[in-house]
Structure prediction request, 231 residues.
Amino acid sequence: AQTVTQSQPEMSVQEAETVTLSCTYDTSESDYYLFWYKQPPSRQMILVIRQEAYKQQNATENRFSVNFQKAAKSFSLKISDSQLGDAAMYFCAYRSAGREYGNKLVFGAGTILRVKS
Amino acid sequence: NAGVTQTPKFQVLKTGQSMTLQCAQDMNHNSMYWYRQDPGMGLRLIYYSASEGTTDKGEVPNGYNVSRLNKREFSLRLESAAPSQTSVYFCASRYQTGPSYEQYFGPGTRLTVT
Prediction:
């Protein structure tokens, strides 16, 4: 079974600075998808960024980018020019490209990001 | 387009009581999911429905039942609530079972069982 590990329960960053959230995963599959979700205090789960395992190029969405290291099974999220609105819980998630459990998401435990003004 | 909606947003139950959490989506999605979120554990899959008329167990199905009423609606029932079921419950939906489509989440239901 796949597992996702987020080793940083909490991180802090100064406004306008850059922060990197870590994620590692364990799988025997070669084809899969990785995601970062943001959960603000409202509880709403918001997709931040997605990476297909077969793509070598790291995904980027505005101030958010990932460092995907397939061999190391590492998928970190970099937030540049941090803003107060970035403060939230961030979840790393894995999804198999197969159909086990209807393509369920496997989540890490989450990292709380605090942004200081 | 409301996306994924869940009712209620908050609920307090006594041990042994029953209740149904409602979920509906208006995006014509085929697949729907129920997850629970507990501190330090992320979200875990309870049940899912790959398409209308089918339901299957996820990782943590004990103590729950589900009904896929139609394509739009997927409910989660607790027959006899236990304190261990205190959690935040999320419903999600997805266009189809296949590799590339993302899941969309509802706002969650915070359930407390005393």
Q: What stands out?
A: Chain B touches chain A through 29 residues (CB under 8 Å).
